[in-house]
């Protein structure tokens, strides 16, 4: 049984490799070729969580689980907020094939999934990106989205303006990409073509009245029903595409909050259905498209399988 550490994952699981994997597995998910249970989330002290996710890539394919802790305060101490393992099992013998570090896989596949959805749903000429947040996922999303759209400007907003400034300066220096920090969230999205929310917010930080026609939005940071990054106006008025209909109805914070207010959004389809031609994506250049990402075990498993079947 192999152990695949974060260094090997970072080296071998590039976005050029992972984005096509996300297309493959989400198309398979919506076609019913994968299996998974809804994630189990155990609240711990404070805002800390422990999650368990189980699934299989096909009825007779590799199967496994992810065990992951989410400790948000680790970020302020300079440590990772997501830590855990992905365990992959052989479909014929049932033997464990590998244990892979989960934090690195999660970071890469989450941004790769957003890039895949952005490629399907954003306007072809979209070139201005705004990210809400300045943590690991903000960095990864900028790097991934550069592969699907010709970005020439990034705006960063976060609750701590000083940290947003530091992050923007680092992006500009390391990626040779114009990046600025905004102290005002509304101003940050005023000219955006693509918006990614990447925070653990418990109350909306993005509002429908702020988002201009033709924008594509990726809602990524709110990973369970107790979190929410966008208001009901946005999710109701946009073309609302989800990674998993079942998952978002049960655990999507934005969907559930709008539903509780008597304004349940109409889910236009799953991203896999868009990929499979079963549901249309963007309908016009003025439509606001929204992709709700919860992340799924089949995304982790296909990454672990791709790494495990090759020698480092």
What does this entry look like structurally?
With 312 residues, the chain is α/β, with parallel strands linked by helices. 36% of the residues lie in helices and 23% in strands. The protein has eleven helices and 15 strands. It has helices at residues 6-12, 15-30, 102-121, 136-145, 161-175, 185-189, 232-237, 245-251, 253-260, 271-275, 297-308; strands spanning 2-4, 35-36, 40-43, 49-56, 63-70, 82-89, 96-101, 128-132, 153-157, 179-182, 194-197, 216-219, 239-242, 267-270, 289-292. An eight-stranded parallel beta sheet has the order 10-9-8-11-12-15-13-14. Strands 1, 2, 3, 4, 5, 6 and 7 form a seven-stranded mixed beta sheet that branches. Helix 2 (15-30) crosses helix 3 and helix 3 packs across helix 4. It is globular.
Summarize the structure.
36% of the residues lie in helices and 23% in strands.
Tag the structure with descriptive keywords:
312 residues, 7-stranded mixed β-sheet, single chain, alpha/beta, 8-stranded parallel β-sheet, 36% helix, 15 strands
Question: Count of DSSP E strands?
Answer: 15
Low-confidence parts lasting 5 or more residues at pLDDT below 50? Answer: none
Element string (H = helix, E = strand): EHHEEEEEEHEHEHEHEEHEHHEHEH
Oligomer: single chain
Work out the strand percent: 15-25%
Distance between the termini: 14 Å
Total count of helical runs of at least 4 residues: 11
> How does the major sheet shape up?
8 strands, parallel
- Based on secondary structure, the structural category is alpha/beta
Rg over C-alpha atoms, rounded to the nearest angstrom: 18 Å
Level of helix content? 25-40%
Average pLDDT across residues? Answer: 96
- Provide the spatial order of strands within the biggest beta sheet: 10-9-8-11-12-15-13-14
Shape: globular
